[in-house]
Amino acid sequence: EGFTEKYGMEYKRAYWSESPDSYLVERHKREVFPLLRRRWMFAEVHSFLLYDFYAPEGHVIEDVFAYSNRAGDARSLVLYHNRYAETSGWIHRSAAFAVKTGQGDEKNLVQLTLGEGLGLQNDSSYYTLFRDYVTGLEYIRNSQELCQRGLYIELAAYKCHVFLDFREVQADAQN
């Protein structure tokens, strides 16, 4: 609630008379609460993937956290820039994770593309539509491009994108 004084469990009463920070409460109502109503989309780990965020020059930008998750047909992609600076780059391949081979305790390291993580068609006739819940904007990208090149993102200082409502449509073959 934005209070200045913080209390532990041992305190029986507040010593200061503070009112909640109305801007902070309103921001939570606008940005956080709608996502909490959809927390089932973020809760499971079966389809959770963490991604490296690559600068156009090719190095990994460690200040950006990017992950995707799926719950049934629902898909989400979250990016957060944890630094006071602007940045831009690509997410394409997930960080490597271990998968059991079925032969005892043996495991292989696997990386998936963004398209595989989101369950997209690697076909140029498909387009992916998705909405950013932070800005309210809706985007359309070619599914094959997302599978093969990934997604280019620009992030300001301490900003994030929460992409939800992914759906694919196929282009009409008529000219």
Describe this structure in words.
It is a single chain. The protein has 175 residues and is of the alpha+beta class. The chain has 4 helices and 10 strands, in the order H-H-E-E-E-E-E-E-H-E-E-H-E-E. It has helices spanning 22-36, 40-43, 114-118, 143-148, and strands at 49-54, 64-71, 74-81, 87-94, 97-100, 107-110, 126-132, 138-142, 151-155, 160-170. An 8-stranded antiparallel sheet has the order 8-7-10-3-2-1-4-9. The chain has a two-stranded antiparallel ribbon with strand order 5-6. Strand 5 and strand 6 (107-110) form a beta hairpin. It is globular, with a radius of gyration of 20 Å. 19% of the residues are buried.
List the helices and strands and how they pair.
Layout: H1 22-36, H2 40-43, E1 49-54, E2 64-71, E3 74-81, E4 87-94, E5 97-100, E6 107-110, H3 114-118, E7 126-132, E8 138-142, H4 143-148, E9 151-155, E10 160-170
Antiparallel strand pairs: 1-2, 1-4, 2-3, 3-10, 4-9, 5-6, 7-8, 7-10
